[in-house]
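Quick board copy: two proteins, each given as sequence then tokens.
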Amino acid sequence: MRLVAAIEYDGSRFHGWQAQGDVRTVQESLEAALSRVADGPVRVQCAGRTDTGVHATGQIVHFDTQARREPRNWLLGANVNLAKDMSLLWVKPVHDDFNARFSATGRAYRYIILNRESRSGLLHRRVTWMRGRLDVERMNRAARMLLGEHDFSSYRALGCQAKSPVREIRHLELRRHGDYIVMDIEANAFLHHMVRNIIGVLAAIGRGDAAVGWAAEILALRDRRQGGVTAKPDGLYLVRVDYPARFGIPAGEPPVFWAH
């Protein structure tokens, strides 16, 4: 029996998604909780691995099991065994040809910046704090140069293991809400550190440290060593994973403190 589930988690105290054995990870914590419900080992496959410190409000996983439990029992049983910084949102049966990673047709992230002189006393590690006024209009002009299908070698980590650096950004927009700047980005898939490296470049442009055209110049170089600073993971959220309608996967939600 194959099941699909959505989870949300605060990545602050996790060393990323992937099981590593000697540190706390999202995968190991989730598998341990589900294994208790199944009374046997459960292994999960996620839609997209998140780095240390990165959060999720709409991560999707699938797992196979011979244990017969109602979806509600999987949900409640797993959540009882999870720490307070992770929660299953729903669980449902899915066709055997569904794969959380390979069936996905798109993914969406949200990045939240606190742009003021003082740090937040309430949203520590849930937003990224940047001093110095950022010009969102300049950042949006630069962002539009990254739309479409490109070789994003300049925007991926040097250690990225993806076979191809080509990705298609379908939507990229920044909006200011008082002292907060919210960036929404959607693509067919993302490379390692791709969103954080894009933010690093756009922030430099927003501060006036680089010209608007720098985003496109870096893209054309196809060389990560020529790129900007990798932004912190604190404000980054995996908010949605898209699938063909036939699988009936509900859409994810953005962070509640910036739902619009």
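And the next:
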Amino acid sequence: MVYIVSTPIGNLSDISFRAVEVLKSVDIILCEDTRHSIKLLNHYDIKNKLVSYHKFNEERRIEFILESIREGKSLALISDAGTPLLSDPGEVLIRKLKENNISYTVVPGANALLPALILSGFDMREFTFIGFLDKKAAKREEKLKSVLKEERPVVLYSSPHELLKILESIDKVFKGRRVCIVKEITKIHESVFVGKARELISYFEKDEKIKGEYVLLIEGYEEKNEEISFDEIKEMYFEGIKKDKPKDVIKKLAKKYNLNKRELYSKLTKEKEDS
């Protein structure tokens, strides 16, 4: 049997009795970083064989894993923290196990995703999870634009050195949308920050040593509350009056973006006169 085992994301006590029993019973424990996992295993007096299994050697390890199973050995897969496969290695292994009709099961437990949703205070009845973003700004922003009109909260992960870059991209794509950052879940310095991306950038720029792991949540799209620049309003107005009367266009825009109709009319007609 192969076990996919969840491990703590910070507090070492956040592990199930079953997870400890399984890790003690298997012949081999596959882990991302043996130096990291040994701390957890020593804490629970687990002395089984550790074998590295990470995104750089997934393919190469498969034959070793399949051969071990053929020899009648049982294995457990763990990640550095949380649940394997959730933005962590393991997909290649699962695919190969299915191809070879090998049974596997899951020992559920800690993950960063659900605690972050609860701590954010955002509506969590439904959500969209996109994990880690690309390190290239263009690809990162392309991914964010794909969920721009998502009405459910969007959840993503960030490493410390990528945090400010991701916030910059969120600010650019989502403008004034509220963002929640949850830091160091279950650890001593667990913290929750809520504000617009620009406000959070100003706060974290002062932190010379951004440390820890971060979960970011972007509040779901709600048309009437979506902030929009006057230039965008102006563009829609001039496009709209090609088909409808100016007063009708202004009425629609004011209602759609919760704006004062008279003020909007005054500004737009002035713009038209100036142009």
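Board note added afterward: Residues 6 and 109 are 5 Å apart (CA to CA).
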